[in-house]
Amino acid sequence: GGYNGKPILWDAQTLQSLVTLTDKNIVSIDDVKFIPGKNQLIISGCGEWQGAYCQKHEVIIWDTETYEKVHSFRSHGNSHFDYSVLRISVNPAGTLLATGTNEIILWDLSTYEEIATLENNPLFGSDELFISMEFSSDGKIIATGNCNKRPSFLAKCIEGKIALWDLETYTLIGEPLINHTDYIRSLSFSPDGQHLISGSEDNTVIFWDLELRQPLSNPITIHADWIRAIKFSKDGNFMITSSDDRTLFKWPGNPESWMTVACERAGRNLTQEEWQIFFPDDDYRKTCEQWFEGY
Predict the structure, then answer these.
(1) What is the pTM of this model?
(2) N or C: which end of the chain has fewer CB within 10 A?
(3) In whole angstroms, what is the distance from residue 237 CA to residue 234 CA?
């Protein structure tokens, strides 16, 4: 899906396009997700633009066999989509849909009814949009990413935040995970649920230990632009990152191997300026022993 509002369904075996889905109520697409266990996909996007702002937001379910529209969440008259629906996510069982604006709405995919709202903590800024979200492999937790701090309302984000939510109580689990210096654009849980990987507009990737609630390494700069998408393989042996720099990287699933891979690809250490951005409270040190210190 893209800015022309016409998602294309492709055959994964032949790599040929099967059909272009069209709906007069959607003019651009923000996110697309398949529903596990069903021949259906969900599309979020904008139905009406006024200048640079979307005035009408749509979330639509399509049947991938008949190519017919199954359900439009706006048709139920909800008012939750006053903000852009930038991200959608479906739990592994295919029973729960999460839509992200400045709040997360959880929907029952059998009844299409809203079942819970996860709201931004006012301490973190209630108007910040959720830019990323991902269900854990067991469906018991959803991780969300957005901005935690900016100098002023219209200023650039200077601190990203990852929140973990309990989907039985619909409450936050502990304090947020904070180490990025910009929006959190992408999240992915490891299949065993012990780790989380995050990608940010600060161009870095962080591997988190969810039991310790700490990063397992320094933020890794391997891409030259925003990290748009991250995904673990089903067996957890590797992960893929993609970026606005038009590159994709395949990473080992073992976090202990990350620094070796990152150092080989980067070919240098962090500069003094980069170190001050990511580790302002720590003395500079080499993270890649085979390379000279950064200037």
Answers:
(1) 0.79
(2) C
(3) 8
